[in-house]
Design goal:
Length: 731
């Protein structure tokens, strides 16, 4: 069996079913690394999109969770825009990141709306949207909802009177019962039965182009994405990749193409989901045969397939038509019910798999979280440091070590950080690890100038190790380059444990990062809190619980996407405004302390700051400090509080809960070091416990925490991402 890199370009129906097959039957899964690349973490089932537009379904009911499906199948997931393929170099070209090398490539990227524009569309381009790609079209229709309420009499036009255009127009009628809807058609379109349905639904047919009004939705047929033809692949007049009966691209046997973007030369079929679904099994079998160095087998799809077209008219309510070639039956409510049954059965295939996975997770041993949640708990760390006489490192902790001071007054600092792969995308994991490591220097007020990386690779064939290493290094550089920093060296290792599936999760990345402050600016530290300081956070908390829930298959895809979107943003741009304000407000009105919130959670890092500051104050006979936190001001990632309320938490959270002691009076009944102001959150309410969990949740690429004067806080809050969470008081 060969152990190659198989890349699945696109999360279309064929590939989704492919992943389900390998999740259900892991022994069939080809050896080596398999990577799915798609622009979104979910894929919409096209057969239910009209129902979604009509309001019969919500987004989650028709969405396939590709991230969870990939995890179940042992497949790495890369969220990226595909821009092309270099078949000669075996490279898949991606937007805003390095190409991905493959040994075999399967293309299932769907289709786009034909872009032949008429004079109306050209003049009103800003008010015309194509139905495909689906996600931006659906977002645009949501915007049109408000327009429908405000301008109920302003017509909305569907351009194109093919089956798709008719179905969408009928769905929009259900969505907007009172808004005028027009359907632009050519002479003879659509057939009489559909014309009667449109008339019954009060949808006006327009054949005169000059009578069309905006806004308009283009449903003018489909074509394959333009990058396929631009890549030099053999295509037909609609840009669909031409294949043999084995689904291999003509003259390119290491490439496969299926679904709306592919067409079998000897058996051309229309672009429709029914053939994409049926192509999944022969595609899977041929990919599996390739992994065993066996010859591929031919597949000939049936000439015709039953298609069900759903809609609504005023006389019969919900109804549907059945199409078999040129034969059309309906409309009839029973056909509508039949269509719903078929559609829901398809989605149920993935829901069934999800339920099986959840049951397996429930019965499995305690999971081990990744990212910074894999950090050693504070208690054994501090005890070990004390045991060898290094307790000063825990009593006066700093995010970065001061190495030297230059003759120009620059402080040179160094820090180190790393963790097991958080995500299966090696490029993204390299970027996240680098941003996380750099955060220690940013928290010290230093610019990153260089880094060295130690990368542990899983035991896989050398070609795969090369690709994993190259992608990881490219991800590291993507985080360093915008800072003007360089990767100056490092070390690579091979793990001695069995590689997981996907093997990209076997990566471990650590970085030593070096930085400097500008001349005359001392590094910020954790130990200089001042009475009256305002506490500010730069971003939301909650990454630990979201990834813990993801491992259990219980996270909402949109919530995890939003978390990753925050985590992948570099915070190095926050430094310059902080230093400017610091220079502007000299003396006491300045930034006194700073840290980044990582594995020990908000309370853990606040506890470090408070302990170190009070230790210094004790040495100078100053009264100790305490903190007040505003619970209702605590920023949380989308979905995090709901997950805490449902009982989810990271595997590091139990150790971090030790810091809840900071919220309690000491043995002398003195005031608690940290007080939480709960506002109108009643005692015993579930939200209280959820917020307590949020405060001990380990963070990967977490926020910066700044303690500064009220003057600086006011300016930061007026313009920037900062959010006030509390203040410092003298006891």
């Amino acid at each position: 069996m060969t152990a190659d890199h198989l890349v699945l370009a696109g999360g279309g129906h064929s590939h989704a079913l492919l992943l389900r097959r390998w999740a259900m039957k892991p022994k069939l899964r080809p050896a080596g690394l398999i990577t799915l690349i798609n622009r979104h973490s979910t894929a919409l089932y096209s057969g239910m999109v009209p129902g979604l537009i009509a309001g019969n379904y919500n987004h989650d009911q028709i969405a396939i969770d590709l991230r969870r499906l990939s995890d179940q199948a042992g497949v790495a997931l890369v969220i990226a825009e595909i821009k092309g393929v270099d078949a000669s170099q075996n490279h898949l070209l991606l937007a805003e990141r390095s190409p991905i090398r493959f040994e075999r490539l399967s293309i299932n990227v769907g289709s786009e709306t034909c872009q032949k524009t008429n004079s109306f569309e050209a003049s009103k381009a800003a008010q015309v949207m194509s139905i495909k790609p689906l996600e931006p079209a659906l977002a645009w229709l949501k915007q049109q909802d408000s327009q429908s309420l405000l301008y109920g009499q302003k017509p909305f036009t569907v351009i194109g009177a093919g089956l798709a255009g008719v179905e969408i127009a009928l769905a929009l009628r259900q969505r907007w019962p009172k808004r005028p809807i027009q359907l632009q058609a050519h002479q003879g379109q659509p057939n009489p039965a559909l014309r009667r349905a449109l008339a019954a639904a009060a949808i006006e047919l327009i054949t005169d182009e000059s009578a069309i009004t905006a806004p308009a939705l283009r449903c003018t047929g489909s074509q394959a994405p333009a990058w396929l033809a631009a890549s030099g692949l053999p295509v037909d007049r609609l840009g669909r990749v031409r294949t043999t009966n084995t689904l291999q691209v003509i003259n390119n046997p290491h490439l496969f193409a299926v679904g709306d973007c592919g067409v079998i030369d000897a058996a051309p079929r229309p672009a429709a989901g029914v053939w994409a679904v049926r192509a999944a099994k022969p595609l899977a079998q041929n990919l599996e045969r390739c992994s065993h160095n066996l010859p591929t087998r031919s597949w000939r799809p049936q000439a015709r397939a039953l298609q069900l077209l759903g809609g609504k008219n005023t006389s019969q309510g919900s109804a549907a038509w059945a199409l078999w070639g040129n034969l059309m039956i309906g409309p009839h409510p029973w056909l509508w019910q039949w269509k719903q049954i078929i559609d829901r059965r398809f989605i149920a295939l993935f829901e069934e798999l999800s339920m099986m996975s959840k049951a397996a997770n429930k019965n499995a041993d305690t999971m081990a979280c990744r990212g910074c949640a894999a950090k050693l708990p504070a208690q054994p760390l501090n005890k070990a440091l004390k045991q060898v006489g290094l307790q000063a490192l825990s009593e006066q902790p700093q995010d970065a070590a001061l190495i030297a001071t230059t003759s120009a007054g620059e402080s040179l600092l160094q820090s180190v950080d790393g963790f097991p792969a958080l995500v299966s995308d090696p490029w993204l994991n390299g970027r996240l690890t680098t941003l996380h490591a750099c955060s220690d220097l940013w928290a010290s007020g230093a610019e990153v100038i260089s880094a060295q990386a130690v990368i542990t690779l899983p035991v896989v064939p050398s070609k795969l190790q090369q690709e994993l290493l190259a992608q990881t290094l490219a991800g590291v550089q993507s985080a360093l380059d915008p800072q003007g920093a360089q990767l100056i060296g490092g070390h690579s290792l091979e793990a001695r444990s069995v590689a997981p599936q996907p093997s990209s999760l076997g990566l471990q990345v650590s970085l030593s990062v070096n930085g400097k402050t500008t001349a005359g600016h001392k590094p910020w530290g954790k130990s200089r809190l001042q009475s009256g300081d305002v506490l500010l956070l730069s971003r939301s908390l909650g990454s630990g619980v979201l990834f813990a829930a993801a491992m259990a298959g219980e996270v909402c895809p949109q919530d995890l996407d939003a978390a990753l979107a925050q985590m992948t943003i570099s915070q190095h741009n926050l430094l310059a405004p902080l230093r400017i304000l610091e220079a502007k407000h000299a003396g006491a009105s300045t930034i006194h302390a700073c840290t980044d919130i990582t594995g020990f959670g908000l309370l853990g890092h606040l506890g470090e700051m408070l302990h170190a500051s009070n230790l210094k104050r004790h040495q100078t006979d100053l009264n100790p400090l305490r903190l007040t936190l505003e619970a209702q001001a605590m920023p949380s990632m989308q979905g995090a509080v709901r997950l805490f309320e449902a009982g989810f938490s990271s595997t590091l959270a139990p150790a971090n809960r030790h810091n809840w002691r900071l919220l309690e009076p000491n043995t002398n009944k003195e005031a608690a070091p940290i007080e939480i102001l709960w506002g109108d959150i009643a005692a015993g309410h579930g939200q209280r416990q959820a917020l307590l969990e949020l405060m001990v949740d380990p963070q990967t690429c977490g926020p910066l925490l700044v303690a500064c004067s009220t003057k600086i806080a006011a300016e930061l809050l007026s313009d920037g991402p900062w959010q006030r969470i509390g203040q410092v008081q003298q006891i």
